[in-house]
Fold this protein.
Amino acid sequence: MDLLGDLALGFSVALTWANIGWCLVGVALGTLIGVLPGIGPVATIAMLLPVTFHLAPVSALIMLAGIYYGAQYGGSTTAILVNLPGESSSVVTCLDGYQMARQGRAGPALAIAALGSFFAGCVATLILATFAPPLAELAFKFGPAERFSLMVLGLVAAVTLAHGSLLKAIAMIVLGILLGLVGADPEVGRMRYTFGIPELTDGINFVVVAMGIFAFGEIIANLEKGNSREVFTSNIGRLWPSREDFRLAWKAILRGTGIGSLLGILPGGGAVLGSFAAYMIEKRLARDPSRFGKGAIEGVAAPESANNAGAQTSFIPLLTLGIPSNAVMALMVGAMIIHGIQPGPQVMSERPELFWGMIASMWIGNLLLVILNLPLIGVWVWLLTVPYRLLYPAILVLSCIGIYSLNNSVFDVGLAALFGLLGYIFIKLQCEPAPLLLGFVLGPMLEENLRKAMTISRGDPSVFVTRPLSLSMLALAAVLLLLVVLPAVRRKREEAFLET
Amino acid sequence: MWPNNPNNEGGMVGIRVRSVGDGLAGLMFIAFGLAAILIGRDYPIGSAMRMGPGYFPTVLGGLLTVLGLGVLVRSLAGSAAPPPSFSLKPLALVLASVLAFALTVERLGLVAAVVLVVGISALASEQFRWREMLAVALIMAALAVGLFAKGLGLPFRLTPF
């Protein structure tokens, strides 16, 4: 089938009233949690999974995807108006966005962020549609050895591209894999690490882990920080950017889109990385870098375009290879499995309506987001004035209901509290929790493919390096690790994350 | 998400002192790694060709222990970071509210469980106000019953009666 035919199929699915409706729910929720600091897409998607039981699979995925890229739009609003990143992917937007707001130019900053995001979203949707089919084609050639190596590459990339201590990030992944192994052994049924608790037979539910660590742990950490916000509500000013703004911003938007799309595809990528990289490149390319940090519009345009592009292209590894590249995608794996869809290359051929419907919905979602975020900006600004002390009890209630509804299990709620404690400890010890969730989701697949590959090769581990595809992926992983360990690169990497 | 990455602050301080946080993190990883090996010592290891249930976890447990040792060693000479401070009040109250939900939702019903979550967790805020707490509790209880129990038809017991 050709691209146009596929896209037509996609739009025929995405343009039904029901699916437009769910797309709208998704992007509106995404904007909401994007605007509100203290709750991110991981916790939200985990919270809403039980609700999606009642939806058609395609509607459920359209809505959940909308939450992720919708959050990228919402995050910029908070960054610009309050100087707090609503999302971690909007951290760099604070630098120039807030300065613009202080100069009374919040309107153009918000508008450029939304328009840049929209442009990036359109391009990323096209990239997804163009590059996913050939990649899926390639993925069909994969045996257990290749799949194992690919997952290793994904996990390695996830830690090398993330910031913070490399050693701790790897340890978090290994811990995540171990937690993923709890339950009955898939081949012989032997119970592992269940302590005789029957509820653990099927393993720990990933929603329990995600909620405990990302919702409960974060809430506790936020509460002890206390918070005060200064919101520029009264002073948004004229919304439409001037001709001069556009002249300065359009190249930044183009570059941000390119960088974001590229970094989003990489395993371990996603929205966060792209926004950092795009900001730094703009600063480096600028004729007068000293303008940055003082309200340069490129400093808003580039990262906001990049994070939206990255959020969307990070679906590529998930939809073509079945490998989640970040914590949000790990949750999407869970969502797909709940609906009886095994993520991987076969999704495109077996469920084309699902695959292309989801892609088409992203374009529609971006259009809805521009409408939601520009004319209706006042609503979100008003929401920003809701204090955290009213929000977090509500988040806790929704989380508890969400966890309980998964299996009507009180045990799961208690277990989530335990993971909340663990999540809080992770935050306190500066152990980035996202790699743990990734390892947790990939763990069982990793073990299964390792065992299969070793059985096929009659116990000869050289199978991973004699098969060319597997070898090249492992080599790439090794190169990535080496690069980060090399002192020169390491200094640059730390600089990159500190400077901004 | 909230920007809770104090890593950045840690890296900026120029003095080289031990990082208590990293040391604790190392110990935590070692504990998890050793636990994985010890608890899993009865699981059949099998052979490389036919891996038993114990093979992969034991290897990972060993790896985690080694990584933990690495983190521990680096904490002695690594970059400086202020020791982490744990505040027990929000920790205890938030977790207690979740546990209260778990203990009551099936016996006392959804309404009571929601009110308990809001009531207990709201105490963790420094700006606690009775009226606000009651308002949030009532709104959330109404939402839970209206949306989740009635609207989505999730099988909740609503009241103890």
Notes: The longest helix of chain A spans residues 106-139. The first strand of chain A starts at residue 183 and ends at 184.
